[in-house]
Amino acid sequence: MKPALQPTLLLALSLPLLLAACGDNDVEATKPLLPAPSVTAAAYETLRSYPQREAPASVLGKNETRLAAEVSSRIVAIPVDAGDRVQKNQIVARLDVRDAELALARADAALAQAKARTAQVLAQAQRARSLREKNFISAEALTQRETELVVAEADTRAAMAARATAARGVEKTTLRAPFDAIVRVRNGQVGEITAPGSPLLTLADISDLQLVAQVQARDAASLAQAKSAEFVAGGVSHALKTLQVSDAISREARTVEARFSFVSTPPPPGREGRLMWLDTQAHIPSDLIVRRDGRYGVFLLDANKARFVAIEGAQEGRPAPLDLPPGSMVVQQGRNALQDGMLVSVQPARK
User: Which residues contact 11 (CB under 8 A, 6 or more apart)?
Assistant: First the structure.
């Protein structure tokens, strides 16, 4: 039998083990805890903004007409120039009228001849009726006279129509403004021979000026809901009233057309500038947006924890639309070091 170990020897062997165990516990107990990240936060109501939107726009008349010649003739006068204001029915161009006047004279002569022939045939028909009542002529002879009268009356109506056409030809040599307008373009020149349909002048209607803008499709909804809009051109702002924001999207430019009337005196037609309005959707500033797990969003305070809220469609460097409950606290300073659910130490905002 092996001799039993003496108690003193057992104590000597077990003491290092006990000391080692106690040492591990002391190291673990003295290991420092990581402090919660310090952050600052502010209510969303104090941070949100309503971005200004804009789109190219121009002032146009409800009607913009290219006034063209209806007959072939030589231009003898254009008494207006580009930029001139003209009134409705004012003469803006004259063509050589001599050929038209000759055609009218021929039509007058033909009409006079047709009327004379009708008068003669009418007298003959009346006499034939009288003779027929006394049985001095046959029924066939009366029918012939009445037929001649019908033909003569038809010839007279045709001559009257031809005369009216010739008179219109004379009128077409004088071009008048169809409405109060500004001359946008002068195409014709004195001495030129016009052809039917050749534009001589472009007139912009000033009786009902409107602002027409091409708005990006993504901004159409905010424009339709905007409380106000203005047209800015040459450093001058003009208040607007919305008439229509079209639902139709241009396939090429991906824009929609919007039309506005002017609250006060409008600028001249053709003036170009920018349509401006404030977005009705609250946005979070771009510098508060961070990226986590491939998504963009912001950190909110939930008691003493940071909660990541992803923003659908958010992009780096751009404000993003965001709806939050009243009183929501958005983390400002310290957000870049946070992860969802992390404990934080909230500090007063730096001034």
Answer: none
Torsion of CA 337, 342, 348, 351, to 10 degrees: 20
Tell the burial category of 284 from Cβ atoms under 10 Å away from its Cβ (0-12, 13-18, 19+): buried
Residue 260 CA: distances (Å) to CA of 247, 296, 334: 15, 37, 46
What is the dihedral sign for C-alpha 131, 132, 136, 137? positive
Q: Would residue 289 count as lying in a domain?
A: yes
Supply the CATH number for residue 295's domain: 2.40.420
Cα–Cα distance between 235 and 69 in angstroms, integer?
40
- Written as six digits, the tokens of 250 are 């241009």
Q: How far apart are CA 34 and CA 50, in angstroms?
A: 40
pLDDT of 135-149, one tens digit each? 888 889 889 999 999
**How high is the pLDDT of residue 348?**
85
**Its pTM surpasses 0.70:** no
Q: Is residue 176 part of a domain?
A: no
User: 304 and 269: one domain?
Assistant: no
SS3 (DSSP) at 244? strand
Give me the count of residues in the chain: 351
